[in-house]
Amino acid sequence: MADDQDHEHHFESADAGASLTYPMQCSALRKNGFVLIKGRPCKIVDMSTSKTGKHGHAKVKLVGIDIFNGNKYEDISPSTHNMDVPHVKREEYSLLNIDDGFLNLMDSEGGMRDDIRVPDGEIGQQMTADFDSGKELAVTVLISMGEEAAISFKESSGK
């Protein structure tokens, strides 16, 4: 069994770049959508198109916020070019505990994980405060480009 897993893992890393993103024509991108800027998965917060001269192509200026670290990135691309768009998946977990800066989470099948950090800044502080006050929380984890981060939470409406 161990051999299979090793082989699979190797295959994944060789193929990782291809399956983590898909191409989309720049002109088809939309605000609040996702795009790769400087190799980072970003949410598009602003885009503007400019025409360049008589024979130039329309260029699209993209402003994106890194979905994991909040950094702001900008990129300019001809509208006819393809940009890489990251596959982004959301999963919801129940928050069981906060332990030493990490969230102890349980998925809907009862699977446990404790490798997601408490988010930085206000979200993390609020999450910790709400959890400490005894609220049951559902945490949304964003998964993209092999990275994962808790991006939001809400009070669970007990089942």
Description:
- By secondary structure, the protein is of the alpha+beta class.
- It has two domains: 21-86, Roll (SH3 type barrels), CATH 2.30.30.30; 88-155, Nucleic acid-binding proteins (OB fold (Dihydrolipoamide Acetyltransferase, E2P), Beta Barrel).
- Helix content is 19%, strand content 50%.
- The chain is built from two helices and eleven strands; from the N terminus they run αβββββββββαββ.
- Strands 9-8-7-10-11 form a five-stranded antiparallel beta sheet, covered by helices on one side. The protein has a four-stranded antiparallel beta sheet with strand order 2-3-4-5, with no helix packed on it.
- Mean pLDDT is 88; it is low at 1-17.
